[in-house]
Design brief:
Elements lengths: L7 H4 L6 H13 L15 H15 L5 H22 L4 E4 L4 E4 L4
Antiparallel strand pairs: 1-2
Helix pairs in contact: 2-3, 3-4
Length: about 110
């Protein structure tokens, strides 16, 4: 069982720039967490988040921690699930050109 320190609450407002989020997404795609098939973030080893934090810090000159990475990863994962649930509802679809979700008005 992974225990996360309560100090994580003090790091939750650490600033993220657009490049750091991009690097997180690139690293997660190229080096997925070991338990990615389960879809449960709590099962991902803390060492994976530390490794991603080291890579982001090296590329973006930041001082993010594994706790910061885990929090952002979970938020992105949550937003992705909400997005995919929305576009599977009849009448909603993703417009690639404009980058927005559109709804078809039904009569």
């Amino acid at each position: 069982m992974q225990v996360w320190p309560l100090m994580a609450l003090t790091n939750r407002h650490r600033s993220w720039d657009f490049n750091a989020v991009g690097v997180l997404l690139q690293e997660a795609k190229s080096n997925p967490p070991p338990d990615s098939l389960t879809g449960i973030t709590q099962l991902i080893p803390k060492a994976w988040f530390r490794c991603i934090a080291d890579r982001i810090n090296a590329r973006c000159n930041t001082r993010l921690t594994a706790v910061d990475i885990r929090g952002r990863y979970r938020r992105l994962e949550h937003e992705y699930r909400k997005f995919t649930a929305l576009i599977t509802i009849e009448g909603f679809f993703w417009n690639k050109e404009e980058g927005v979700v559109l709804a078809v008005e039904s009569k």
